[in-house]
From TrEMBL:
Keywords: Oxidoreductase
Record flagged with keyword Oxidoreductase: yes
One Gene Ontology term of the molecular function aspect: monooxygenase activity
Gene3D superfamilies hit by this protein: FAD/NAD(P)-binding domain
Protein name per UniProt: Putative flavoprotein involved in K+ transport
Organism listed in the record: Geodermatophilus obscurus
Leader sequence residues: none
Amino acid sequence: MTQTLDAPPQGAARRAADWFAALEDAFRARDVERAAGLFASTSYWRDLVAFSWNITTVEHRAGVTDLLTATLDRTDPSGFAVSEEPEEADGVTTAWFTFQTAVGRGKGLVRLVEEDGQLRAWTFLTTLYELTGHEEPRGPGRPRGAEHGVDRQRLTWAERRAREEAELGRTTQPYVLVVGGGQGGVALGARLRQLGVPALVVDRHARPGDQWRSRYKSLCLHDPVWYDHLPYLPFPDNWPVFSPKDKIADWLESYVKVMEIPYWGSTEVRSAAYDEAAGEWTVELVRDGEELTLRPQQLVLATGMSGKPNVPVLPGQDVFRGEQHHSSAHPGPDAYAGKRVVVVGSNNSAFDICGALWEHGADVTMVQRSSTHIVRSSSLMEIGLGALYSEEAVAAGMTTEKADLVFASLPYRILHEFQIPAYEQMKERDADFYDRLEKAGFWLDWGDDGSGLFMKYLRRGSGYYIDVGAADLVANGDVHLVHGQVVRLTEDAVVLDDGTELPADLVVYATGYGSMNGWAADLISQEAADRVGKVWGLGSDTTKDPGPWEGEQRNMWKPTRQEGLWFHGGNLHQSRHYSLYLALQLTARHAGIPTPVHGLADVHHTR
Ligand SMILES: Cc1cc2nc3c(=O)[nH]c(=O)nc-3n(C[C@H](O)[C@H](O)[C@H](O)COP(=O)(O)OP(=O)(O)OC[C@H]3O[C@@H](n4cnc5c(N)ncnc54)[C@H](O)[C@@H]3O)c2cc1C
């Protein structure tokens, strides 16, 4: 065990150092039982790729034993070192650490508690951050750019880039094809580029950022800037707290250029089939109207969690004389001043669209079918995100990387326990606001167990509104509120299940988005989608019935039951953080490093 602190460690530092020394000793002796004994009887070890070649959480000593039995020998972990002064609070010692494995370098965060007079791990996060021999060319290892000296074959940077572009897909194949060039696809594209893995990002939109440009015009990000940085290139400190959608779109477009991401716009993937024997995909695409085939070995669907609109099919839609569209196709309010608009739905998009329509003088009715969780943006920023992602956190020395790791270190099994008090605080602070909404008849909820927004996002990816003002319009009746299920349309009205008729010139279906495994079914096959199981959400492994608790976001950023198929996406925070682990898994496969996956015994994943 190496101790990086200069003076002999005292107090918390001493205790953490002793715990790591004991852990390393047990690891060196390959004594799984002794190592598991260093964990508390209730404990959680979350591993991001370092030990498991998976994203996985194991629980309690039995889970630790299981993980170590399968992985200790081949991982050969060593060099555990506490990397900064541990903190002590409420009987928990929290320590950052670094370590090495047989193939790479890792970092992590442990929370130690006392149990039976012994210091034991309560939560333990291990993450791989680089592969030995495949370090990114950064800092002292950055490229030189100019090649001094003389060379008659010299090509400029622009010439090399042009040649690379001309060859890609013709004489060279990408090892990884990323379908979808939104924030998820480009974050991964940037990482793969840095790691030297031949990759190509394709998108059916013409320009990077069009995903955001094409959304309703009033949209600004709901998450604040500190939470939204992309890898390598944080937003400058004059960037607005909430990015307007066209500004973030331009940033994504610049990002693709600056990070030199191989990117084809106006390119649609039509189908993909995996050839087991050859270990590669046959992907049929149409680029600028021209059909072509690519043969990557790895296929990443970064096609968006909010990319497949759920549009209800209702009797009467064909006779309705007004306009109707899904929220994803809503152009904005300009054309609807003085018009009667029915917005079906009561989550984020519904509120944003209702607010903008009202501002433009439309007569707006919101149809609420089931309850919604609402949290005020200011309260969420202060109470929910402030400690990790805020100007104050930055001033206190919190980096984005550290914040992401702190967040990742809270196991999903108990994350709600950390969230509930925060949402109770918000409920109390904004009691008057909630009271007014309830008096207006709005159905509110706080998630299944009172754990609020983030858990709802992880579990379902929907069912909430981060209030930036439009909730008041519902509370004071400026936007009319009705409850029920839309059952049909007439020539000029929306009809609810209780018979209520809502006259309408425009109907907006703010009815959300379908799951990402729908994309796998569309592009590959239903059979492949079924084999993979649900994508997104926390809970049991849905390919088995009833499946064991997985403890992770299903199928995201990790090996799936379809060899060579991966899913990537989520909000900007997730795209940033988890793209690293996905990129490392792909890099290892490209480099031929063995990647035996723990927890997917029925999948060999040799490549
Ligand atoms: C109204 C709204 C507001 C949101 N606000 C926020 C926010 O404030 N903060 C936040 O972090 N997140 C927000 N999100 C959620 C999420 O971050 C965004 O949806 C984001 O765009 C997701 O990025 P992505 O890269 O995963 O997917 P997308 O941006 O949806 O990109 C997927 C891409 O895949 C392409 N594609 C799909 N199929 C194919 C195919 N067959 N061939 C080629 N290309 C294909 C699509 O053209 C699309 O460009 C919001 C979402 C919506 C709808």
